[in-house]
Amino acid sequence: MTQPSGNRESIHQIVPLSQLIQKPLHKVLLILILLTGCQSKSLKDRTVYVQPLGKVPVLLTDTIQKAIQHTYGMKMVLSQSVPLPPSCFVQIKSPRYRADCLIEYLDLQRNKKIDYVLGFTTLDISTTKRDGLGRVQQPESRYGDWGVMGLAYCPGHAAVVSTFRLKGDASKLTSRCVKVVLHEVGHNLGLPHCPNKRCVMTDAVESIRTVDHAQAALCAQCQKKIGLR
Ligand SMILES: [Zn+2]
Ligand SMILES: [Zn+2]
Questions:
Q1: What is residue 39's predicted lDDT score, i.e. its pLDDT?
Q2: Which of 20, 24, 110, 200 is the most exposed place for a label (fewest CB within 10 A)?
Q3: What number of other Cβ atoms are within 10 A of residue 183's Cβ?
Q4: pLDDT (tens digit, 9 = 90+) per residue, 6-37?
Q5: Which residues of the chain have pLDDT under 50?
Q6: How far is the CA of 1 from the centre of ligand 1 (A)?
Q7: Which listed ligand is nearest to 229 at the C-alpha?
Q8: Which SS3 state, helix, strand or coil, does residue 100 take?
Q9: Are 207 and 90 in contact (CB under 8 A)?
Q10: All residues at 6 or more sequence positions from 28 whose CB lies less than 8 Å from its CB, including other chains
Q11: pLDDT per residue over 64-75, tens digit each?
Q12: pLDDT at residue 204, rounded to an integer
C-alpha cells in the first residue's frame, strides 16, 4: 500500500502571505475562519463515492462499502461500474493500469458534493516507487512500473484499490480487500502509516502477510487523529 510522497492537491487554496498582509485585519480573519471551517467538517457529514472500474463482484463492492461506513461513519454512494480509462493503460512489464492516472481520472469525475472517490478494480494497477526525495528507486527497470494493491494521496480526495494482488479464497480475498480499502481511505483522510502492526494503517510494505496480520480496524491513536474518539 504505497503512500506517494507529495500531495497532488491541497485541501485549501493557498493565499500568498504578502496578499494577506495588505488586506485589512477583518478580511484576514474571515479567510482564516473559512479555512478552519473546511477542516472541521465532521466525518459523518462527508461522502464517499465508490466507483467500480470494470467488472467487479457486487458482493465485494457491497462489503467494502459497508466496511468504510462502519469504520469511518461517512455517507456512502455506490456508482454503476464504468470502464477503466484506456489512457491509463500501460504495458511496461505486463498489462496494467497506472494507479496515479486512475486517481487523477477519478478526482476529475468528483463533484462538489462528493468528498472522496474510491475506485475499485480486479485488474492490475501500478505506480512508480520513489524514495523520500522523489527519485525513482533503483533499479528503475524494477520500480519504474511497480504493481500495487492500492494507492492514495495523503491527504487527498481519491484512492484506487485492486484485488489483483490479494489472491486467496473468497473469504480471504474479501478480508484483505477490506483492509486495503480502509488503509487507502485512511490516507485520503490524512492518516500516515501507523507503527502499530495490528492497526489497519500499518505500512504493508507490499507484503500480503502484513495485511493479514493487521485488523480491519483503526487503532485508538489513529481514531483520535481523525476525531473518532
Ligand atoms: Zn499506506
Ligand atoms: Zn493506528
A1: 54
A2: 24
A3: 29
A4: 333 222 333 333 333 344 544 444 444 444 44
A5: 4-23, 25-38
A6: 4
A7: 2
A8: helix
A9: no
A10: 20
A11: 999 999 999 999
A12: 86
Q: How many Å lie between the centroid of ligand 2 and the Cα of residue 223?
A: 7
Sign (positive/negative) of CA torsion 103, 105, 108, 113? negative
* Ligand 1 centroid to residue 184 C-alpha, Å: 6
Virtual CA dihedral for 148, 153, 156, 159, nearest 10 degrees? 0
Nearest CA to 70 among 177, 171, 182, 229?
182
Q: How far is the CA of 226 from the centre of ligand 2 (A)?
A: 11
This prediction has a pTM of 0.83
C-alpha cell of residue 120: 475499485
Cα 19 to ligand 1 centroid, rounded to whole Å: 36
Q: What separation in Å is there between the alpha carbon of 133 and the centre of ligand 2?
A: 25
Residue type, 22: Q
